[in-house]
Design brief:
about 575 residues; seven-stranded parallel β-sheet; about 25% helix; about 10% strand
């Protein structure tokens, strides 16, 4: 298949070298397909929309895109309720559209990572519909987790467990049995003890690999396997159990048997397909997911929960580089994604209360979101300044950088979405407690004016605020000081400067200033404080997060510098 797709893409000539280690220090851009670009004017982003924006992605300077689910789905959970793992939602395109998109991205030297959601399917999946029709004790039901209820007539749920999205984790069907759903009721969990389930996902991995996919992001990789034999514990007992590999439903040791099978599939391709685990697990248990015998890489989400604080950043970097060395993988750096408040907004809000382990007691930004963005007062300008500094800091680190669509525009979270327009199941299952994740999934602004700021010809599926226009791509492309200009310069320079994965901490003389060196004489200096910091007269300033060029580093600013040989 040709890698060109229109007359304006004759610049897409960068070769895609067959490097098996390309992912180790890659810049990966997450696309939430339904909110990126709408080519057919129905208000929903689609695959042709992504294809049309390949020149933008190439100009940004990324190495790969990660696509959130684009599969057929009833959107009970933003596409993470998958009805068919080997097809494209017809509202987003066709398999032929997918092939054209992959060809265009590969032609631009951009690799493709797709989301795999193996813990659960949609309740509209043909297997689950067959399970409902077949009845208790059938082979069809054994692909999922069905149980008889408690009480004389089985009217009580098998346990009092709660789902991640709130509410009961069991749902009763017409014949009286109950099925387990760790997330939304429309997302029944698979039974990973069933060989058919395991074989079908191997088929899915080969299906997409054969279509040119370079890697996979594994959703809730720590939850697949379960042991629900014998008497099931109460919620109180379940919550108190240690995460030592034997927990009934979370981070079980036997999940790695699944990933060892997957690794054989990945390694049967040249170059091997990559994978990264979304695994919210205890620190010491993360390396196994990232091992060469398993998925090969695992997200560390520590910076998603950190304040803009020198001590926290230093500790997190040191800790995760040590974990990466233990696993033989490279680590990952993430400041924003489709599940959290955008980091420009987080850094503009007061620091959250923290537990004894240092984790936020409540999700950062929850109070602000629940108030519709009214309180506490958002320091939007300061938040963006800190976000730019944090981004340049993380892009200087060894390891992979995962970027979320719109962060290169400095977008803030959208807090004031009307209740009638919200889509996230967490909003409906936790009223007054969790506003949901829609605010970071609002479609991107491509132009400053128009019905959906250039996203498409119709109103966007999530309403865009009026202030989005000022952050539009067309304006930022003409502004040498914009967030977009910073990202483009940083990603281009990162490619020039990167070599080995080493880092050496250097003394700065200030508790608020972190300084480290990378190979090639490249140094990264971040001033987390408010007072200026003197970089020294003997350095060459390569890039600053404020796009200044001086050696007097302002507060809440990062600089990349080089000392003369």
């Amino acid at each position: 298949m040709s890698s060109t797709f229109s007359a304006e893409t004759d610049v897409l000539t960068r070769a895609r070298p067959q490097d098996a280690n390309w992912w180790r220090q890659a810049a990966v851009y997450q696309i939430y397909p339904r909110s990126f670009a709408d080519a057919n004017g129905d208000g929903l982003g689609d695959l042709p929309g992504i294809t049309a924006k390949v020149p933008y992605l190439q100009a940004l300077g990324i190495d790969a895109v990660w696509l959130s689910p684009f599969y057929p789905s009833e959107l009970a959970d933003g596409g993470y309720d998958v009805a068919d793992y080997r097809n494209v939602d017809p509202r987003l395109g066709t398999l032929e559209d997918f092939d054209r998109m992959v060809a265009a991205l590969h032609g631009a030297g951009i690799r493709v990572i797709v989301d795999i959601v193996p813990n659960h399917s949609s309740d509209q999946h043909e297997w689950f519909q067959a399970a409902l029709a077949a009845g208790p004790g059938s082979p069809e039901r054994d692909r999922y987790i069905f149980r008889d209820g408690n009480g004389p007539d089985g009217a009580e749920a098998p346990t009092d467990w709660e789902s991640v999205f709130g509410g009961p984790a069991w749902h009763r069907v017409e014949d009286g049995q109950w099925y387990f759903h760790n997330f939304a009721v429309e997302q029944p969990d698979f039974n990973w003890a069933n060989p058919e389930v395991r074989a079908d996902f191997l088929h899915t991995l080969r299906f997409w690999s054969d279509r040119g996919v370079d890697g996979f992001r594994i959703d809730v990789a720590h939850m697949l396997t379960k042991d629900l034999s014998g008497e099931l514990p109460s919620k109180a007992v379940l919550d108190a159990l240690p995460f030592d590999g034997n927990h009934p439903i979370i981070d079980r040791d036997d999940v790695h048997e699944v990933y060892a099978e997957w690794r054989k599939v990945f390694n049967s391709y040249d170059p091997p397909r990559t994978a990264v685990a979304e695994a919210w697990v205890e620190r010491d248990r993360r390396p196994r997911y990232a091992s060469p015998e398993g998925l090969g890489q695992a997200f560390n989400f520590d910076l998603l929960e950190a304040d803009f604080d020198a001590r926290q950043f230093s500790s997190i970097v040191t800790d995760n580089l040590e974990l990466a060395e233990r696993s033989g993988s490279s680590t990952t750096w993430v400041l924003s994604n489709h599940d959290v408040v955008r980091h420009a907004t987080r850094y503009g809000l007061p620091h959250p209360e923290r537990s004894e382990k240092g984790h936020p007691v409540v999700k950062h930004g929850s109070e602000w979101l629940l108030s519709g963005g009214e309180h506490p007062v958002l320091d939007a300008e300061g938040g963006l300044r800190r976000a730019r500094a944090a981004t340049l800091f993380t892009l200087g680190l060894p390891g992979s950088a995962y970027l979320y669509q719109g962060e290169e525009l400095g977008l803030h979270e959208v807090a004031d979405i009307p209740d009638s327009d919200r889509q996230d199941p967490t909003f409906f299952r936790n009223p007054g407690v969790d506003i949901g994740r829609d605010g970071c999934r609002v479609p991107l602004p491509w132009v400053a004016e128009g019905r959906s700021f250039g996203f498409g010809e119709a109103d966007a599926h999530l309403p865009q605020p009026g202030w989005f226009g000022a952050s539009a791509v067309e304006l930022q492309e003409e502004d040498a000081g914009s967030a977009l200009a910073l990202y483009r310069k940083a990603l281009a320079l990162r490619h020039e400067l990167q070599s080995g994965e080493q880092l050496e901490w250097l003394p700065s003389g200030s508790a608020d200033v972190l300084r480290f060196a990378r190979p090639n004489g490249w140094e990264i200096v971040t001033n987390f404080g408010s007072e200026p910091f003197d970089l020294g007269a003997d350095v060459e300033v390569l890039l600053r997060s404020d796009l200044d060029s001086g050696t007097d580093l302002a507060g809440e600013t990062t600089a990349w510098v080089r000392r003369p040989a």
